[in-house]
């Protein structure tokens, strides 16, 4: 297991040659419908066989379900984690536990600016004054830079999480990033996830059991009442529902 921390600056100019956007879109067109009903491991096997080292997994460390699935198919697979500088200590602890116990190559990505540098330029608590800009600087742009050397990335996106994600394809085209976006567990229900966690002893962020079914940055995440939308605790009190990574 290897843990690597990289500042977003390090990804500028590091992109290696891969398939063209046209070739990648053709793969999505051909395989999207073919794999729509396939098991999650089959979807990961296809992505690994198709893209090789230019395929990675992203994880927000709410749990290690996707990392476990992917590493069971491809031991040593790259798992990208965005350390925004605002995470709960439990989230960082879950990342460290994944690194210590699973056969993955963990890559911790940080924004170009530290929180202090961002505060100096934009004012303190940017997550309050301009949450969209804060997410852009600390999540969206760092992820885009970190994916420069990949043709495809896997996410833990699930359609049951929120109405906004109901149409998330299993194999899709991310036009903004010009990458293939793979969502192996898009069709999984909450019960499917719980069953997989129980049957495989999967690591789960302890905050999940403390009323946080969807976990983001600490200043912008609140507990959720039983029965409420799992993502209603994210950016509570605002109209914001996504950080921009999946928008």
From TrEMBL:
Annotated ranges, domain Phosphoadenosine phosphosulphate reductase: 60-222
Keywords: Cytoplasm, Iron, Iron-sulfur, Metal-binding, Oxidoreductase
Entry-linked CDD domains: PAPS_reductase
Location(s) in or outside the cell: Cytoplasm
Catalytic activity: [thioredoxin]-disulfide + sulfite + AMP + 2 H(+) = adenosine 5'-phosphosulfate + [thioredoxin]-dithiol
Pathway assigned in UniProt: Sulfur metabolism; hydrogen sulfide biosynthesis; sulfite from sulfate
InterPro entries (alphabetical): PAPS/APS_Rdtase, PAPS_reduct_dom, Rossmann-like_a/b/a_fold
Ranges for region Disordered: 1-23, 228-247
Binding site for [4Fe-4S] cluster: 134-135, 217, 220
Cofactor(s) it depends on: [4Fe-4S] cluster
Secretion signal span: none
Active-site annotation: 243 (nucleophile)
Co-factor binding comment: Binds 1 [4Fe-4S] cluster per subunit.
Main localization of the protein described in the UniProt heading: cytoplasm
The EC number(s) this enzyme carries: 1.8.4.10
Keyword Oxidoreductase belongs to the record: yes
Family recorded in the similarity comment: Belongs to the PAPS reductase family. CysH subfamily.
Task performed by this protein: Catalyzes the formation of sulfite from adenosine 5'-phosphosulfate (APS) using thioredoxin as an electron donor.
HAMAP family found in the cross-reference section: CysH
NCBIfam families from the UniProt entry: cysH, PRK02090.1
Annotated protein name in UniProt: Adenosine 5'-phosphosulfate reductase
Native organism: Nocardioides fonticola
Gene behind this protein: cysH
